[in-house]
Design brief:
Distance between the termini: 11 Å
Order of helices and strands: HHHHHHHHHH
Strand content: under 5%
Largest sheet: none
Helix content: over 70%
Number of strands: 0
Number of domains: 2
CATH topology of the largest domain: Rna Polymerase Sigma Factor, Chain: A
CATH architecture of the largest domain: Orthogonal Bundle
Shape: globular
Length: 197
């Protein structure tokens, strides 16, 4: 989890040293992930960009009060989730909105052929399989596999138990493994899809 340690260091430098350089690095590191996450809730990349910008602006304004935050990644994801849901309520575009009605097209990040482990064609098959998952299952898979959050972080963010996270991830991995079983050896598929909790 080297990246999370780097994020925590940058977050602390912003809080304790008022470092604008650390703030910019933190924004660059997380903005794409947070924009995709927000866009899946509000169904608009443009609006998601504004929301993430607002989340970081509020973070900068309150930086001296946030030194107690133990997990900056979860803090920023929860802030993004809350502001996204609040924005929807204010716009009254939806009377009731939950994370079960995500716009999964907005979640999709172009699949990468990680370290040459899978071909672009197999990466596309994986992406199609991920897109076929139910919304919450897909969100959990993407938060763990693409955004590299831990089970605990996902459970905090979505306010569900780690057992639920594990169950949803197991479903996702099983369905994706079935979709790509002819393209990758079992061992390679498990390596690609495996995530430590």
């Amino acid at each position: 989890m080297r990246e999370n340690e780097q994020i925590k260091t940058l977050f602390e430098r912003v809080c304790y040293e008022n470092s604008i350089q650390a703030y910019n690095e933190l924004y660059i590191t997380l903005c794409s992930r947070l924009i995709h996450f927000s866009a899946s809730i509000v169904s608009s990349y443009h609006l998601a960009e504004e929301i993430v910008s607002d989340v970081f602006m509020v973070f900068w304004q309150k930086r001296n009060q946030l030194s107690h935050v133990n997990n900056p990644v979860v803090y920023l994801y929860v802030s993004t989730k809350n502001l996204s849901l609040n924005t929807l309520q204010q716009q009254k575009r939806h009377r009731h909105h939950s994370l079960d009605t995500l716009d999964t097209e907005m979640l999709a990040i172009a699949p990468e052929a990680e370290n040459g482990m899978v071909s672009a064609e197999v990466a596309q098959k994986i992406e199609r399989a991920v897109r076929s998952l139910p919304a919450r299952c897909q969100l959990i898979f993407r938060l763990i596999k693409q955004d590299r959050l831990s089970y605990r972080e996902v459970s905090q963010l979505l306010e569900i138990s780690t057992k639920t996270v594990d169950a949803q991830l197991t479903i996702a991995v099983k369905k994706i493994s079935q979709a790509i079983r002819f393209d990758l050896s079992d061992e390679l598929a498990q390596t690609y899809l495996h995530q430590d909790s």
